[in-house]
Design goal:
Elements lengths: L4 H51 L5 H4 L11 E7 L9 H16 L4 E6 L1 H9 L3 E6 L7 H17 L3 E12 L2 E11 L7 H10 L8 H75 L1
Parallel strand pairs: 1-2, 1-4, 2-3
Antiparallel strand pairs: 4-5
Length: about 290
């Protein structure tokens, strides 16, 4: 069967263009990933400081913050998902969807309501029959703090209404350069032990002198802790997305290289066969003369 050399050349040019695009996306994701990891590390250090501070108080968070003292009367679970607005990041978004499905299997899909940061996951969940209260784009990095502060106040108001028994966060996190599988993490009700595990060492060695009542200080620390949990989820989610996209684009670049090599081999074989055929035709014509 004759091979169309022009068609093969067009395919090779297309593969080359795709390889250039995937390589560029890989480099951009690598640059953004480093910045996101630095921000996430600073958030982790800040979180440890808050844990140490909270662990130094004798009273529990629920005693200091009125919103946390509310006994929830509802049976539903509010889920806040952090994912991507775009694709081309491998199984990053699908793993978040699987985590939501796993939670729905244990609690019932009718008992879940979802707020999605990242329209990819929000739109898919809505098509699958989940009750999505809101689906919005992830804010730009410059607006992270403002949006997280707003989201924290919004979630505390929702919790204070008593309609939900639990508020969960679902987001991907990093361990080195490995994107960990997302799982549901309880945001509220707050675990009374939060701050004690990491704070025990600080509480046992450091002495804090209270110049005023400790309740307002603890209340502020708890609110900052909850807000920082949301910020950590957003930063970890962004860093995970860049790592996932970098790996996906690296694989795509390698596949493009392999495909180009295969096409080039096919092209060279077809071109050699065509040259051999033309030589045979010339020799046959000369013999006939």
């Amino acid at each position: 069967m004759a091979v169309d050399l022009q068609k093969l050349k067009r395919k090779m040019r297309g593969v080359t263009s795709t390889k250039q695009v995937t390589r560029a996306l890989q480099m951009v994701s690598a640059m953004k990933m480093r910045k996101a990891q630095e921000q996430s590390e600073r958030s982790r250090v800040y979180r440890k400081g808050l844990n140490d501070l909270m662990g130094s108080f004798d009273s529990s968070p629920a005693e200091a913050v009125p919103e946390l003292a509310v006994t929830p009367s509802g049976t539903k679970t509010l889920v806040v998902t952090f994912a991507s607005d775009r694709g081309l990041c491998g199984p990053y978004n699908s793993k978040t969807l699987n985590a939501v499905k796993k939670l729905a299997d244990s609690k019932g899909i009718d008992n879940l309501e979802i707020k999605a940061l990242g329209i990819k996951v929000g739109s898919v969940l809505r098509r699958r029959g989940y009750k999505v209260l809101s689906s919005e784009r992830r804010p730009a990095y410059a607006h992270f703090n403002a949006r997280i502060q707003e989201l924290s106040r919004e979630l505390l108001d929702i919790w204070n209404a008593g309609d939900y028994s639990e508020i969960c966060l679902i987001y991907s996190s990093l361990r080195g350069m490995t994107v960990l599988k997302p799982d549901a993490e309880t945001w509220l009700p707050i675990d009374p032990s939060d701050g004690e595990t990491e704070g025990e060492s600080a509480a046992s060695t450091d002495t804090f002198i209270d110049e005023a009542e400790s309740a307002p200080v603890l209340a502020q620390a708890v609110r900052r802790y909850l807000t920082n949990e949301l910020l950590t989820a957003l930063l970890q989610s962004e860093a995970s997305e860049h790592v996932a996209r970098m790996v996906a684009m690296d694989n795509a670049t390698r596949n493009a290289s392999d495909l180009f090599s295969s096409l080039q081999l096919t092209y060279n074989k077809a071109r050699q066969a065509k040259i051999t055929q033309e030589i045979c035709e010339i020799v046959a014509g000369a013999n006939a003369v």
